[in-house]
């Protein structure tokens, strides 16, 4: 690929700037309908977004035309979540228009950053899984690969979080309030999605049994398209999101009864389907509306895929040569049964041919080993909502179990374990088993995760289908997470490497290795980090009235709040450090700012209590003069993609401290490494590969390994032993349990401490405490030598190339999808 320049020289000449200014004013007047003498900044944001979208749209049509003409195989990425964030800056940087638009706005007395601040986040996801989908779309487009996203256009994305009196309070995310300037509504792209109803069995002329699904309650799926601009010479791909619309028939039925109001009510009720994103990423909610959302977007997407394929005039046997479908977790796994239904009932294919086609098309990405997150649905619900799909799942299961029985005669327990139906206590459909049996590849998202997936939850399947299981380690897009989020460091890297080719070829960062030993480079690197910290301090001052010292060590843990991620371990270290400082107030402490951020699922009591604990500890410490300039704790509210982009460039120490064997991959660990943070982490998820890539000496690894923890549990883990053996741990726990940080309600945090001491400490917080605190001491020692720290930080950036999502996507394209970049 030829090198792409951030600011095309031609685009910043006076003539072009003049044209942009005219275009902006025209859009303001004709598209937004505002008089330039009486505007809000938001009006200018919308005008700007429209001008930028115009430019992208031409390239997008070119890309679509090219894909059409080459008739290349396509991948469709099905995901319930796309955590995109803001689009404006990303689009400007990917297309090279940033500088020209900045100048045009400056000429008009405006500031691009301020105008960009008016954009609402597209927060259609919970966390890592949804953000991965967004990074993958960026990489597919940047690599010129024919890849299309399908998801749901939720009216409300993940809730916005406010902190009131230290507690999380959820507020609705009304992101479409002012409209979404990036999307194209496609009222003509409309598909019928059926629910409920009854089955009628018929006989074909050739004696085959067929089924008709009748008397269904239907909802329409309407398409909205979001163009996804690749970087530089990349293509512009498409993300198609479905919104629920009422059918006309529905209304008619009630109209005929003369019940107008009832008809309108019915209309709103079916449109509720795409109203809101479920805000929990780690437990299975099992609500009917959720299963409806899943089938809704799967059904619409498959209809759309088949329309494009041209089922009317093509042989369906060719479908796997034209189409690959990736299932992002099991949420869209019902697509396997849906494609079977279409092939059998609508196209009359024989079972074996239909199933052969289906398996060649689908692949499934597993994201979690936590049993409570594995998706299952009551058979009774399935039967009511999707009767034909349940029947097909039973048929898939029957044939699969027959085969297992032939290969392993007499092993009834194996049959019970691998069945698509869990027969224990109320029968349930196991969506992961459906996804495995109906796919040709199943991947985990980091080496350890993929190994554990095959040795634990899917062990039987790994034995049955040894070639099906592979690893593809996650990645993040360097465009958003380094080039865009950290212009200071990005500029320095470009200067040091001689060009910006690293933005689309991140392995080139290896070229920085020799510069880790270059004092002049290190000094500039340190300045860039300091400037980012000062900038963050400024933002938090303005937004929250906080005073952060950019010279202190910025120690950051930002991610969803969950017990397995162990924010509580972090807080135990904070309390321990607090006690140490109080005990020796005159010692030479390395000043530290500990920053925490993340949302808790609204129904997750323990996680919400952790947020309150962080805020209560912060309050006590803020009032204590002994702590001033030594230790500060901050909880940043409403962690989202934009917050992440502000925080990550300013991180010194990246907290990746999940219980070994629980964090499938993690991706904030990658973003922070790329931005020159050092990791303090367990040997979990992709931390292991980060250690391999940047060198084990350049991060702080602590704690039990997954294997050691399994062994400890076999012997019988006793959290009390750790409590009794470690006086600092005991002191910290006693303070929290007895109300030291919550004198107005001394028992407030007892449930947290009880979960550790009485509840068996499921996540081994106490087992890892001492080693964690020791690793934190090593952090202080290294940070005390700024040059030594900077050397290792440079080596972290230099070793982060492997974690580009471009690498992940190339692996998917090569080993699963069999798709090629377009010329
Ligand atoms: C990257 C990212 C995540 C994932 O973070 P992990 O630490 O890997 O869980 C979650 N939320 C947002 C907003 C992100 O940008």
Automatic annotation (TrEMBL):
What does the record list as GO biological process? glycogen catabolic process
- In the record, which positions carry N6-(pyridoxal phosphate)lysine? 671
Keyword match Lipid biosynthesis: no
Q: Which GO terms describe its cellular component?
A: cytoplasm
- Single GO molecular function: glycogen phosphorylase activity
Q: Which cofactor does it need?
A: pyridoxal 5'-phosphate
- InterPro entries linked to this entry: Glycg_phsphrylas (IPR011833), Glyco_trans_35 (IPR000811), Pyridoxal_P_attach_site (IPR035090)
The reply on keyword Transferase is yes
Annotated keywords: Carbohydrate metabolism, Glycogen metabolism, Glycosyltransferase, Pyridoxal phosphate, Transferase
EC number(s) reported in the record: 2.4.1.1
Give me the reactions it catalyses.
[(1->4)-alpha-D-glucosyl](n) + phosphate = [(1->4)-alpha-D-glucosyl](n-1) + alpha-D-glucose 1-phosphate
Pfam families reported in the protein's UniProt record: Phosphorylase
Which function does this protein serve?
Answer: Allosteric enzyme that catalyzes the rate-limiting step in glycogen catabolism, the phosphorolytic cleavage of glycogen to produce glucose-1-phosphate, and plays a central role in maintaining cellular and organismal glucose homeostasis.
Similarity remark:
Belongs to the glycogen phosphorylase family.
State the protein's name. Answer: Alpha-1,4 glucan phosphorylase
Species name for this entry?
A: Methylomagnum ishizawai
Q: What is the lineage of its organism?
A: Bacteria, Pseudomonadati, Pseudomonadota, Gammaproteobacteria, Methylococcales
């Amino acid at each position: 690929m030829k090198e792409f320049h951030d600011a095309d020289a031609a685009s910043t000449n006076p003539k072009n700037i003049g044209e942009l200014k005219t275009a902006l004013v025209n859009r303001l007047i004709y598209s937004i309908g505002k008089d330039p003498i009486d505007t809000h900044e938001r009006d200018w944001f919308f005008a700007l977004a429209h001008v930028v979208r115009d430019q992208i749209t031409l390239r997008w049509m070119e890309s679509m035309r090219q894909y059409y003409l080459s008739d290349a195989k396509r991948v469709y990425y099905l995901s319930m979540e796309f955590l995109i964030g803001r689009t404006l800056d990303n689009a400007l940087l990917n297309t090279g228009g940033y500088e020209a638009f900045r100048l045009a706005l400056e000429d008009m007395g405006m500031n691009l950053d301020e105008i960009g601040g008016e954009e609402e986040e597209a927060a259609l996801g919970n966390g890592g899984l949804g953000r991965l989908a967004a990074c993958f779309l960026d990489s597919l487009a940047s690599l010129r690969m024919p890849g299309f996203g399908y998801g749901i256009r939720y009216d409300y994305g993940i809730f916005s979080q406010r902190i009131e009196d230290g507690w999380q309070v959820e507020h609705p995310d009304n992101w479409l309030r002012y409209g979404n300037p990036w999307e194209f509504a496609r009222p003509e792209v409309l598909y019928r999605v059926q629910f409920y109803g009854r089955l009628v069995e018929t006989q074909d002329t050739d004696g085959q049994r067929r089924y008709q699904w009748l008397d269904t309650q239907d909802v329409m799926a309407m398409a909205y398209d979001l163009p996804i601009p690749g970087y530089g010479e990349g293509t512009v791909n498409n993300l198609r999101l479905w919104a629920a619309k009422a059918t006309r028939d529905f209304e008619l039925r009630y109209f005929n009864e003369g019940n107008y109001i009832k008809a309108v009510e019915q209309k709103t009720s079916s449109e509720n389907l795409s109203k809101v994103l479920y805000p929990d990423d780690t437990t299975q909610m099992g609500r009917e509306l959720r299963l409806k959302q899943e089938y809704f977007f799967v059904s619409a997407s498959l209809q759309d895929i088949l329309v494009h394929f041209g089922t009317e005039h093509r042989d369906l046997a060719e479908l796997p040569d034209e189409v690959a479908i990736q299932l992002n977790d099991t949420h869209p796994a019902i697509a396997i049964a849906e494609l079977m239904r279409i092939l059998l009932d609508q196209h009359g294919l024989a079972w074996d041919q239909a199933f052969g086609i289906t398996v060649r098309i689908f692949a499934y990405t597993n994201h979690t080993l936590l049993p409570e997150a594995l998706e299952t649905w009551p058979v009774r619900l399935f039967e009511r909502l999707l009767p034909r799909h349940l029947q097909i799942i039973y048929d898939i299961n029957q044939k699969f179990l027959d085969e297992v029985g032939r290969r392993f005669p007499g092993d009834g327990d194996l049959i019970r374990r691998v069945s698509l139906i869990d027969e224990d206590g109320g029968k349930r459909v196991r969506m992961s088993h459906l996804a495995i049996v109906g796919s040709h590849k199943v991947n985990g998202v980091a080496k350890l995760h993929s190994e554990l997936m095959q040795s634990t939850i899917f062990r039987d399947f790994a034995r049955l289908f040894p070639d099906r299981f592979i690893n593809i380690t996650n990645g993040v897009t360097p465009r958003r997470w380094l080039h865009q989020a950290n212009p200071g460091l990005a500029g320095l890297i470009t200067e040091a490497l001689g060009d910006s080719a690293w933005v689309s070829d991140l392995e080139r960062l290896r070229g920085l290795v020799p510069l880790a030993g270059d004092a002049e480079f290190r000094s500039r690197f340190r300045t860039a980090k300091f400037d980012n910290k000062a900038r963050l301090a400024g933002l938090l001052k303005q937004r929250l009235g906080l005073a952060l010292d950019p010279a202190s060590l910025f120690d950051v843990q930002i991610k969803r709040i969950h017990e397995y991620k162990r924010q509580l371990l972090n807080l135990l270290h904070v309390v321990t450090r607090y006690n140490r400082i109080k005990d020796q107030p005159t010692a030479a402490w390395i000043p530290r700012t500990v920053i925490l951020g993340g949302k808790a699922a609204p129904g997750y009591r323990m996680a919400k209590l952790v947020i309150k604990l962080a805020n209560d500890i912060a309050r006590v410490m803020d009032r204590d003069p002994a702590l001033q300039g030594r230790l500060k704790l901050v909880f940043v509210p409403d962690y989202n993609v934009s917050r992440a982009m502000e925080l990550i460039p300013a991180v010194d120490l990246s907290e990746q401290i999940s219980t070994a064997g629980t964090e499938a991959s993690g991706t904030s660990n990658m973003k922070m490494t790329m931005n020159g943070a050092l990791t303090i982490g367990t040997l979990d998820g992709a931390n292991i590969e980060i250690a391999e890539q940047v060198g084990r000496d350049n991060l702080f690894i602590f704690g039990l390994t997954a294997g050691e923890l399994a062994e400890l549990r076999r012997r019988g883990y006793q959290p009390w032993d750790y409590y009794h053996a470690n006086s600092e741990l005991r002191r910290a726990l006693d303070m929290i349990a007895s109300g030291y940080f919550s004198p107005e309600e001394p028992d407030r945090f007892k449930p947290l401490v009880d979960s550790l001491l009485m509840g068996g400490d499921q996540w081994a917080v106490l087992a890892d405490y001492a080693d964690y605190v020791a690793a934190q001491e090593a952090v202080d020692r290294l940070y005390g030598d700024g040059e030594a720290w900077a050397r290792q930080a440079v080596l972290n950036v230099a070793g982060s190339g492997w974690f580009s999502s471009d690498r992940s996507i190339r692996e998917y394209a090569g080993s699963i999808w069999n798709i090629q970049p377009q010329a």
